[in-house]
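Researcher: Here's the sequence for the chain we discussed earlier.
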Amino acid sequence: MKRREFITLLGGAAAWPLAARAQQLAGKVPRIGFLQRIQNENVVAFIQGLRDAGYIDGQNAVIETRIFETTLDRLPDLANELVDLKCNVIVAASRYAFEAAMRATSTTPIVGIDLESDPVASGWAKSLGRPGGNFTGLFLDLPELSGKQIELLKEAVPTLSHLAVLWDSTIGEVQFRATQAAARAAGVTLHSLPIYRPEDFNDAFDRAARERIHGVVVLSSPLILEQRLQIAEWAMRARLPTISLFTLFPRSGGLMAYGPNLPDMYKRAAAYVGRILKGTKVADLPIERPTTFELIINLKTAKALGLEIPPTLLARADEVIE
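Model: Thanks. This is the structure I predict for it:
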């Protein structure tokens, strides 16, 4: 996407000075808070989803976007700022963000987006159908997907016997344990590649190369999504086939992905915002899980790795990148 198109889709949040926008629209339209790690395709999808719901920044809504990047210690201040601005609803992407928002307010509706956690087991919701309180959202909460990912990677790499798992040790414990169990069931030896910060990725792939790994399952976290281009480059340099649940991953040069369409989840979050602004109680909005999953294969990457993807696997792909 061209830079100009990206900025246009971000709406007034990118084009208007914050103070001028707030002064012109204050008290007249709903204010929507948005906590996100980085500006990316998912932000564009969220803004588009709000437009589809009838809310355009700078016209009939004010979107208060706060990007926290890698500075997690700023999150409490950013969440409190959105509450002090009297946002009608706050959308918080990632566990870090919505936990900060929930500490900041027990009354403002919060819509969370997360791929790593179980919202009921974590105590954020009473149930998926009726979460109660001021929190709802969209959660993947399907750690067993790693079994399907291992199965697909074995189809692409029939000699696979040593498998590495790249995972974020700050929030990925549940996913990693599920992948461990799936690897045992599949009869492959698993090697753990935990990361904690951006500086850890290079060492993780160097280690994978030394240990003669045959492939890598890339688990999810905001940090891993942010580093997907570099992960694809490191994997290519180490001659490692990869699979991720981020469907954006093969479009960045990774070999395969099997998972939900994350930009669509952001659009669904925007639809939740629209329902809340129109009067639906957040406590009555069920926590939603994705029901459709996409298989995407980058054939160009496969050829560069010397892999011959079976025609039966290609036939099942929702998208083949050539």
